[in-house]
């Protein structure tokens, strides 16, 4: 039997968690030895669309690597409709999605569309990189994210990974901006 054709590009690059308290979640991960955390606070996701309607959720996001896997923590700070708010309003907190990073975002999205996976939430990160959360029918998690690798997004992800490589436990939270 031939191996199935992969719908999304490459390996899973990120495991993401939606949390109610970003700092509390960071503290729990630090106790596991994961860090340092690169934090972007109160970022408005302009140019976003949730279930076909414009939205602009305000989120604080933290990134850290554990080996080659990036961990992302997301706390939504407002009541804008979003894939994150939907998750918490259903009484959930914790593991939310896996993410694939793609140099050919359009091809990845075409593959997802061919599978019949609808887009739940999409945006451009303020023009930094396109992203989309797909309903893959509960295959791996609540949703699956595809993020476009651009010069800026690749640079950020490389920075997060390099910070973790030789981290000695000092300066555990580093705020961007």
Features:
2,3-Dihydroxybiphenyl 1,2-Dioxygenase, domain 1; 177 residues; 4 helices; 11-stranded mixed beta sheet; 11 strands; alpha+beta; 24% helix; single chain
What does the secondary structure layout of this molecule look like, with pairings?
Elements: E1 14-18, H1 22-31, E2 37-44, E3 48-50, E4 53-55, E5 58-66, E6 69-76, H2 83-89, E7 94-102, H3 105-115, E8 119-123, E9 131-134, E10 143-148, H4 151-165, E11 173-175
Parallel strand pairs: 1-6, 2-11, 7-10
Antiparallel strand pairs: 1-7, 2-5, 3-4, 3-8, 5-6, 8-9, 9-10
Give a short synopsis of this structure.
This protein is an alpha+beta fold. The protein has helices at 22-31, 83-89, 105-115, 151-165, and strands at residues 14-18, 37-44, 48-50, 53-55, 58-66, 69-76, 94-102, 119-123, 131-134, 143-148, 173-175.
Our Rg estimate from Cα atoms comes to: 16 Å
Q: How many individual helices?
A: 4
Task: Note the quaternary state here.
Answer: single chain
Strand content: 35-45%
CATH fold title: 2,3-Dihydroxybiphenyl 1,2-Dioxygenase, domain 1
CATH architecture: Roll
The count of DSSP E runs of length 2 or more, i.e. the number of strands, is 11
């Amino acid at each position: 039997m031939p191996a199935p054709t992969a719908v999304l590009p490459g390996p899973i690059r990120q495991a993401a968690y939606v949390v109610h308290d970003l700092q509390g979640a960071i503290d729990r991960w630090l106790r596991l030895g994961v860090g340092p955390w690169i934090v972007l606070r109160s970022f408005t996701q302009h140019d976003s669309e949730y279930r076909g309607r414009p939205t602009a959720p305000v989120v604080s996001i933290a990134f850290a690597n554990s080996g080659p896997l990036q961990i992302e923590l997301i706390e939504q700070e407002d009541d804008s409709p979003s894939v994150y708010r939907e998750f918490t309003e259903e009484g959930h907190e914790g593991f939310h999605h896996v993410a694939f990073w793609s140099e050919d975002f359009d091809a990845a999205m075409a593959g997802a569309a061919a599978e019949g996976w609808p887009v739940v939430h999409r945006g451009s990160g303020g023009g930094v990189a396109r992203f989309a959360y797909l309903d893959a029918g509960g295959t791996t998690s609540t949703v699956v994210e595809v993020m476009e690798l651009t010069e800026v997004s690749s640079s950020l992800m490389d920075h997060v990974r390099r910070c973790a490589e030789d981290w000695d436990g000092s300066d555990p939270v580093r705020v961007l901006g």
